[in-house]
Specification:
Distance between the termini: 38 Å
CATH topology of the largest domain: MetI-like fold
Low-confidence stretches: none
Number of strands: 0
CATH class of the largest domain: Mainly Alpha
Oligomer: single chain
Shape: globular
Radius of gyration: 23 Å
Number of domains: 2
Strand content: under 5%
CATH architecture of the largest domain: Orthogonal Bundle
Order of helices and strands: HHHHHHHHHHHHH
């Protein structure tokens, strides 16, 4: 009886997994199929595959411009978030100070609806003379990615044994040297998780870029997809080709660092 119950439970779990996987993957697979299918081919399996949509897309210079802008914003956001997050996370994990227990309050910042703070952000960036620049988007992305990145790194530091750090300090190692030679190498999965998380969030950011960079030369990939939708109308092959290209960088980054990312996300060491 117990064996039958366990088998039923496992079957239901696997059924749930398959349902979730189908819900997530089927739209992506259909988009991939549409991007390679010829025009007006509505079959589930196309009669033949074509690279026409991708060749037409890559022949347009603006797609490289949008990709470059998104890449610059994503990499610069990582450069800002990572060192600041590391310092803040180490302080939250290892030091005692007034208000330390209220550190979780910073997690409220990423939960704020973007539309609620959009007008003040635009006005503030305008006063700083940063409006209509990639710097404004980088700063805003950094602010909204930093709290979660700091909290993630803090949890990972807490999972590491403090005895190793104390032994290094007793042997005469300075706090800064110990941080770079001992603490940070032990946090590699957490750092990779923050890098991947920040890159994906910054690459997919649309609302802040849309509000802060009205110039066509400063558009990012999500804005580019909207622009292509407006210019191509119902040419679904070309539109889905844009979506597949926009999906490629974060997907490749996740696949390359998948194991390390999962380890950092859940706070355990790789073996």
């Amino acid at each position: 009886m117990k064996h039958a119950t366990r088998t039923l439970q496992r079957g239901l779990v696997w059924l749930a997994f398959l349902g979730i996987a189908a819900f997530v993957l089927l739209p992506l697979l259909w988009g991939l199929r549409t991007s390679f299918a010829p025009d007006l081919d509505n079959k589930v399996i196309p009669s033949f595959l074509t690279l026409k949509n991708y060749s037409e897309l890559l022949s347009r210079p603006e797609i490289l411009l949008y990709s470059r802008n998104s890449l610059v914003i994503s990499l610069c956001t990582i450069i800002v978030v990572l060192p600041v997050g590391l310092i803040g996370a180490y302080a939250l994990a290892r030091f005692q100070f007034v208000g330390k227990n209220l550190g979780f309050v910073f997690m409220i910042i990423p939960l704020l609806p973007a539309i609620a703070v959009l007008v003040p952000l635009v006005a503030y960036m305008n006063r700083l003379h940063l409006y209509n620049s990639l710097v404004a988007v980088i700063l805003v992305n950094s602010v909204f990615n930093l709290p979660f990145a700091t909290w993630m790194l803090r949890n990972f530091i807490l999972a590491n044994p403090i005895s190793i750090e104390e032994a290094a300090l007793i042997d005469g190692c300075s706090r800064v040297r110990m941080l770079f030679t001992i603490a940070i190498p032990m946090m590699t999965p957490g750092i990779v998780a923050v890098v991947v998380y920040t890159f994906i969030n910054s690459w997919n950011a649309l609302i802040y870029s849309f509000a802060l960079t009205p110039s066509p030369t400063l558009r990012v990939m999500p804005q580019g997809i909207l622009a292509f939708m407006g210019s191509w109308g119902t040419q679904w092959g070309g539109i889905t080709a844009v979506g597949m290209l926009a999906l490629l960088p974060p997907l490749l980054l996740f696949l390359i660092f998948q194991r390390t990312f999962v380890a950092g996300l859940f706070g355990y060491q790789l073996k």
